[in-house]
User: Fold this.
Amino acid sequence: MPSLQPEQLKILRLLARTQFASMDLLHKLTGSQRKPRTTYHLLHEIEHGLGMICHKVFYTRNKQALGTTYALTKAGAAYVAELEAWPPGTVYYPQGGISFAFADHFHREACAWFAAKFWEWADSTEDVAVSRCIGYWKKDASQFAVNRVVVPGLDYPIIPDWVLRFEHGSKSRLVAVEIDRTTGRTRLLDRVRYYAQAIDTQAISQRFQHPRAPFVLLVTESPQRMAQLLEDIHAGKAGASFVKDFLGIFQVSTLPDIATRGVAAGFFRLDGSPSPLFASP
Assistant:
């Protein structure tokens, strides 16, 4: 294996865990005290000197630059898998390069940021072993996302932004993560109903071969958006007994709350009590 600088290794590990990330996000997540230009030069060397990453510059319809997103290449994914002693083929890389549209840029950035925060918790918490952390991944030409879950009674599958599985002490947790950046009030409530149906039919636990029902983490971009959702849920718009039936399943938070409180303390149950998901067993 080629010898890389510690900063370069950190970037590769971050991309293996987040799948996609912008230069700005990678600069922040590496904790670099150097100027962003230094991170750019590191990325340039990893891409053009080693061929381990690829990039795509995103523009609006008005040709205004949104930013540059990076991901691993096949060579980069193989390098990280060997470095971490992970099974071959378990590290994501976009075959054919980064292909999602500019409209997805900020959503993918939010997903990458959340994954980094989850790993930050996992790495700093004793007796935690992560066995699955996979985002929106189309593995082959079939174009079916790896996280795709067919739910009986629904016309369309659900595709969580992340599916996490980790062992914390003696407890095994399966978690579906939905990060919402939409603006339609009804659309988010519909997603909650779809996840509820997936829980009722055991579609998620069967899909990922987990013996117990999963947790569903609902994350909104703003506190106002979350307040609207909780108002609708408590008004019975998701079902008359929704809070009672799914109190232990759905956990909620916002991106600002996670940024301030971290993953472990940032989530709450539907009744406002702290989430037990990340608590020590």
Notes: Strands lie at 21-22, 53-59, 65-72, 128-134, 162-168, 171-180, 215-220, 250-254, 268-269.
